[in-house]
């Protein structure tokens, strides 16, 4: 096999093979459940599998040659399931460059920000600042033109 798991990924996949949930693994290793999910996701990609039991089996076949003790207890469901990235999104990220490529690769994860709260006040604030700036500029046009006209009458121009 051409995959290479980090020591932390190996440890997490082994614990997942014992049918521990993400929260239980996180508590044992002193990590957050989201970090455990991230490690599992990367391990799934490297091993070419889609769930923790397949990963544990592939790991036991490839690394040690001895089967991992897979218990018959039901798997506790994680708070947020680890979702493998669609291959089209990964290929899309490679063909597109820049910020838009990364944004397009987010697929279902991208959500428009709601207009409300601090964002609403920020937009209103900037609109008021620009409105005041424009009003001050317009109010200065007439006095400046009068001053130029007086200078022309006095022969200073």
Automatic annotation (TrEMBL):
Q: Where is the HTH luxR-type domain?
A: 1-63
Alphabetical list of Pfam families matching this protein: GerE
Which keywords label this protein? Answer: DNA-binding, Membrane, Transmembrane, Transmembrane helix
Identify the CDD domains for this entry.
LuxR_C_like
Q: Which GO terms describe its molecular function?
A: DNA binding
Q: Which Gene3D superfamilies match?
A: Winged helix-like DNA-binding domain superfamily/Winged helix DNA-binding domain
TM annotation in the entry: 119-145
Q: What is this protein called?
A: DNA-binding CsgD family transcriptional regulator
The organism of origin for this protein: Brevundimonas faecalis
């Amino acid at each position: 096999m051409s995959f290479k798991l980090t020591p932390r990924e190996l440890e997490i996949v082994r614990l997942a093979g014992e049918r521990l949930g993400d929260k239980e693994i996180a508590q044992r290793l002193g990590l957050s459940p989201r970090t455990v999910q991230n490690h599992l996701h990367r391990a799934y990609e490297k091993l070419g599998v889609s769930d923790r039991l397949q990963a544990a089996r592939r790991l036991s076949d490839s690394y040690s040659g001895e089967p991992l003790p897979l218990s018959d207890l039901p798997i506790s469901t994680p708070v947020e399931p680890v979702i493998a990235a669609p291959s089209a999104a990964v290929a899309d990220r490679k063909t597109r460059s820049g910020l838009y490529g990364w944004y397009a690769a987010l697929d279902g994860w991208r959500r428009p920000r709601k207009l409300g709260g601090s964002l609403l006040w920020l937009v209103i604030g900037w609109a008021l600042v620009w409105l005041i700036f424009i009003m001050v500029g317009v109010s200065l046009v007439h006095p400046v033109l009068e001053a130029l006209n007086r200078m022309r009458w006095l022969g200073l121009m």
